[in-house]
Structure formats: structure tokens, C-alpha cells
């Protein structure tokens, strides 16, 4: 039997009006603790988010009135991690945030004998591996915990209940791929590609519109959940204003994935229409786009927004290509597997490592410094 002959791997159909009915919803990264699990392959994300630690601490010290927040909540501070995955990065992030908040409180109330209590709420999709997350909780933690399953594009918490929320390397996953790019009669039909990289303007615009819609829902929900004066921090992939995604190394990654899948379809492993019906729900915004959606919401002040280098330690992409692809696989494999099946997905990642290693000089030309965006927002009082 050929791989992917099962209907389970073909979640699409072509309707009379020429619409490929398949919307790829984001799935959580690989659970467990196996070779390709996120828990074992999230070191790059840890290094990237650590670049922002000092800046986030600065914003907490300068802008977050912990004394006022504590007085209004019986000295209980609630912190939410939006898109927590399976760790261990989420515990590192929580520790750093809580240390910064405690330090600010001590500075504001040096003579108080009252200590703060912390409740950290770990959120991700219901299909996230919360078992692995909670079995790896630090034994020496000084906070209470809860798991909150659900999409952060919807409400997750009671009104005015969260004092500090952060989302690290999660908001770039769209709630779904844009439907218009799967309409065969649409100018935005993304035939033969799996992403907006190197695609037509209509496809790029469709992705941008989907991100704007999703980000608006994300901010609307957080505006209700955060207390007045509460802080929201976002760290995610980004691009400089006006730069095409095909100009950076992640764009080359998606182009290579798409071409490999097309090759596999031509080899008879599956029908080409499965590529046409698949568009990866990933979007990296520019600061200009982020500013626009935040201003449209109107409930937050922008305290800090900047593009940074997510890998200042990296001198050459060539030295990390195989490890990079394993990290990519840990994050993205589930989405590809649902569409193409295990065997095809495994073969794609094998060929991807080989192809990008052989194109190391081209990979190096696509490496850019400032492709991570930091956003620090404060809920208006």
C-alpha cells in the first residue's frame, strides 16, 4: 500500500465552486521526550527568547506598578504563559518573570514583611502534551500552577484577572491558513506552494490579513483578561518593514519544503492536490503591522517594540543546519503528518536536511540578524 492512501491523511475535498476545502489549523509541537520531541529540541527557542530577558526585566522595573497590582489582588499575582508547549523553556520564562516582579515589589515596598504569592497559568491547545509539561515541573518552584487548555485567540481567563501575560514563539502560528489561498478560482490560489514565501502578492496579502484578524482577536481577549495596568509581552519571529519573507532563511526553509513535497508527489507517493490544499499557518509580521493592529485595538500602550537578533551567538548557519531542522521538525511535524502521513513527513525532513546542507552557501546569504520582534504592552488604566 502506498503511504497516505488512508482517508485520514486527506482532509480535503474539491467542491463544485472550485474550492479546496481544507483549513490547516495549528497543532502543538511534538510531545513526549523522544528523539524529535519539543522538550528535547527547543534549545534554539530558549537562546532566542533569552536575548529579550534583560529588556523585559527593564520594562517590568520601569513600567509595572507591582505594589498597586498586589494591593488590588490580596497580594496574589497571576501570570499567564500563552502557548506554553511542553517545556522546559516555559519554566525558565516563568522563573525570570517572577524574579523580576518580586524584585520590583521589593524596591517599591522595602519595609514590608508581606510576601507575594504567584499563580502561573500555563496555556496551550487542548491537544498539547500537558502530561509531559506537568511531570517536568521544577520541584523547587515557588508558585502555584494550573493548566488552561484552549486557543489564545479566544478568551481564556475571567475578566481583569491576569496581571502579567507573555507569549514566546507562539503568536506566529495562525488560527488557520487563509481560506482564499485554497480557492482554485481565486487570484490568491497558492497552487504548488505550502506558504506565502515566494508566492504572489495576493497570497502574501491573504496571509497578512489572516494574521491581522487573529492578532486582533488575541488582543481583544487579553484586553478583557488583563487588569488595568497589567503587562503583556510578545516575542515572535518578525521581519523588517518592507522586507519579503523570501529574503530570510526561514523563507528558504518553506520553499525547500514545498519543492520536496512536490517531488514526492511526482514520485507517486500522494496526489499533487494534497500540496495545493496545504498552506502552513505561519506568519512573521513587521513592526509596522504589529503597531497597526495594536492601535486598532486601542486598549494598550506600546511600551517597547523592536526587532532584535535572535541568535547573536551564531556566526554561521552552516554549523547548525542539521540541528536546526530537528528543531523545526519538533515544532512543525504534527501539522505535516496530519496532511501527508508519517512516512512522507519523515522523508521530507530527511531530504530537507540534505538539501539545505548542500545549499549551505545560499543558506548563508539568507541569514539575517533582526528577525525577532519584541513587543511590550501595558493595559490602559
UniProtKB/TrEMBL annotation:
InterPro entries: MeTrfase_7 (IPR005299), MeTrfase_capping (IPR042086), SAM-dependent_MTases_sf (IPR029063). The keyword Magnesium applies. Keywords: Magnesium, Metal-binding, Methyltransferase, Transferase. It holds the Pfam family Methyltransf_7. Gene3D superfamilies: Methyltransferase, alpha-helical capping domain, Vaccinia Virus protein VP39. One of its GO terms (molecular function) is methyltransferase activity. Signal peptide: none annotated. The keyword Plastid does not apply. GO terms for biological process: methylation. PANTHER family: S-ADENOSYL-L-METHIONINE:CARBOXYL METHYLTRANSFERASE FAMILY PROTEIN (PTHR31009). This is Uncharacterized protein. It comes from Psophocarpus tetragonolobus.
Amino acid at each position: 500500500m502506498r503511504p497516505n492512501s488512508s482517508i485520514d491523511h486527506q482532509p480535503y475535498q474539491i467542491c463544485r465552486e472550485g474550492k479546496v476545502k481544507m483549513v490547516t489549523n495549528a497543532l502543538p509541537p511534538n510531545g513526549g521526550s523522544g528523539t524529535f520531541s519539543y522538550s528535547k529540541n527547543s534549545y534554539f527557542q530558549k537562546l532566542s527568547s533569552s536575548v529579550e530577558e534583560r529588556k523585559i526585566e527593564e520594562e517590568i522595573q520601569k513600567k509595572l506598578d507591582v505594589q498597586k497590582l498586589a494591593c488590588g489582588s490580596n497580594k496574589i499575582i497571576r501570570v499567564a504563559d500563552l502557548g506554553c508547549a511542553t517545556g522546559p523553556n516555559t519554566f525558565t520564562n516563568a522563573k525570570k518573570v517572577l524574579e523580576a516582579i518580586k524584585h520590583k515589589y521589593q524596591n517599591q515596598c522595602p519595609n514590608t514583611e508581606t510576601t507575594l504569592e504567584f499563580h502561573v497559568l500555563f496555556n496551550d491547545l487542548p491537544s498539547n502534551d500537558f502530561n509531559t509539561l506537568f511531570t517536568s515541573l521544577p520541584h523547587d518552584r515557588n508558585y502555584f500552577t494550573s493548566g488552561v487548555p484552549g486557543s489564545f485567540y479566544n478568551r481564556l481567563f475571567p475578566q481583569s484577572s491576569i496581571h502579567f501575560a507573555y507569549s514566546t514563539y507562539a503568536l506566529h502560528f495562525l488560527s488557520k491558513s487563509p481560506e482564499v489561498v485554497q480557492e482554485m478560482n481565486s487570484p490568491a490560489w497558492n497552487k504548488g506552494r505550502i506558504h506565502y514565501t515566494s508566492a504572489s502578492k495576493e497570497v502574501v496579502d491573504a496571509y497578512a490579513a489572516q494574521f491581522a484578524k487573529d492578532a486582533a482577536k488575541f488582543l481583544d481577549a487579553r484586553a478583557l483578561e488583563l487588569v488595568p495596568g497589567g503587562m503583556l509581552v510578545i516575542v515572535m519571529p518578525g521581519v523588517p518593514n518592507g522586507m519579503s519573507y523570501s529574503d530570510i532563511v526561514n523563507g528558504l526553509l518553506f520553499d525547500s519544503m514545498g519543492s520536496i513535497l512536490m517531488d514526492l508527489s511526482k514520485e507517486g507517493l500522494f496526489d499533487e492536490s494534497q500540496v495545493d490544499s496545504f498552506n502552513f499557518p505561519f506568519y512573521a509580521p513587521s513592526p509596522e503591522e504589529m503597531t497597526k493592529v495594536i492601535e486598532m485595538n486601542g486598549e494598550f500602550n506600546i511600551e517597547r517594540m523592536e526587532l532584535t537578533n535572535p541568535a547573536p551567538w551564531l556566526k554561521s548557519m552552516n554549523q547548525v543546519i542539521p540541528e536546526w531542522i530537528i528543531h523545526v521538525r519538533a515544532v512543525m511535524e504534527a501539522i505535516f503528518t496530519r496532511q501527508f502521513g508519517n512516512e512522507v513527513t519523515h522523508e521530507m525532513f530527511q531530504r530537507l536536511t540534505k538539501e539545505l546542507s548542500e545549499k549551505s552557501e545560499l543558506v548563508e546569504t539568507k541569514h539575517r540578524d533582526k528577525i525577532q520582534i519584541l513587543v511590550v504592552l501595558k493595559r490602559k488604566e
